[in-house]
Amino acid sequence: MTFVKNGRTATVAATVLLSAVLGVPNATAAVRTADAGIILPAGFSAKVFALSKDSAVVGPDDIARLGDHLFVGYQNGVGAKGEPAPSGRADSTVVEYDLRGKQVAQWNLTGKIDGLGADPTRDRVIATANEDGNSSLYTISPRGNARRDGGDKRTEVQHYQYNPSPLPHGGGTDSVVVRNGTVFITASAPAADANGTTYSRPALYTAKLSDGKATLTPVLADNAVATDVVTGKPVKLNLSDPDSSEVVPRSVPRRGGDLLLDSQGDGQLVFLSHPGKRTQRADVLSLKTQVDDTVFTSGGRGTLYVVDSANNRVIAIDGPFRDGQAFVSVPSGSPTPAALGSLDLNTGAVAVFGSGFGNPKGLLFVSSDVERQR
Hints:
The chain is mostly beta strands. The chain has helices at 12-22, 368-371; strands at residues 30-33, 38-41, 45-51, 60-66, 69-74, 91-98, 103-110, 113-119, 124-129, 136-140, 148-149, 153-154, 157-163, 172-179, 182-188, 202-210, 213-221, 225-228, 234-236, 242-247, 259-263, 268-273, 281-286, 293-296, 302-308, 313-319, 326-330, 339-343, 350-354, 360-367.
C-alpha cells in the first residue's frame, strides 16, 4: 500500500486502509476531496487555502495566526545553518494571508525560518532562523506598529541575536510559542554528551527580547525527569531532537493549559504544567511514530490548516471536529507513511485521519468564532 504523494490522485488501497484505521465499516466512509487530492473521513472536506506560484518561494514549513490573518514561513531551500540554497538564495519568506487565502504582505528574512509564532499582546509574529546552528530571531509587526527605533523611525522587522552566544545546548532554535506573555523557544539539534549517546543540555528556553538581544533562560533539560503518561512511573528523558511546541487549550482534559514539546526524532511528546515555575511538572507520552507538529481543536467547529511542504501549499480542512481533539502531522521522513493523524493522548497511538499529503508539516486550528469575523 502506498499513500498519495502528489496531492492529485487517490488509490483504492489508501481509502481501504484509512477506513480500517478509523474503524469505519467500509471504504465509502473515507472520501477524496477532488480539488486537493486529500482523503478524509466522511463529513470532512479539504481545499487548497494557499499555493505558492512563485518558483522562488517554496518549502512552506510553519504556520501561525495573529488576529484574523495567517502567516506561513517558506524556507526557499536554505540550509539548516543558514547555508545558501542551490539557487544561491540565502533568505526565507514569511507570507501574510487573510482568512480567504489572499496574500496581504511578505517579508524576506536571512536564514532558514523554522519556528513561527504569534505574540498577540504585542501584535507581532516571532520567527526563529536556522535550526542546527548560527541561529537568531526576528519579530514582524505586520501593521507597521513596531516599537520606535531611533526615536521616530518605525520598522516592521526587528532582528535579535541570542544571549548567551553560542547557545548553551550547542545547536539552533526552532519552534516558538507565547504563553501568558512569556516567549518559549525550543533548543533544536542539541549537542550530545561526551559519550555520544546521552543528552543533558537545555531543551527549552524562555526568551526576553530587548535592545537587539534575545536573552535566554533554560526551562527544561534534555535529561529531565518526567512521569510516563501510560505507566505513571518516573523516567529520565534523553531528548535528542526538540522540535515543535504548542500551548494546549484549556478544553483538553488533563492537559489543558500545558506547554507541549515534541522531540520528533525520539517519538515523544513532553507536557509541561506550570512551565518555568517552581511547580513545573513534566509528563512524557511515547508515540508509535515521529510527528512534526501537534494541534488541538478548540470549540469544535472550525478549520484545520495543514502545511504540505512538498507541494508548496496549505490545505484547509473543514468538518465536524470535536472540542479538544488532538491531531499530528506525520512527515515523509518518518517510519510510517506521511499523513495527518489523530492522536490518542492516553496511549500515544496515532491513527490516520487524512492522506494525500506530500510532506505535512505545520498545523493550525482556527475556530469558527474567528472565521465569522471575516
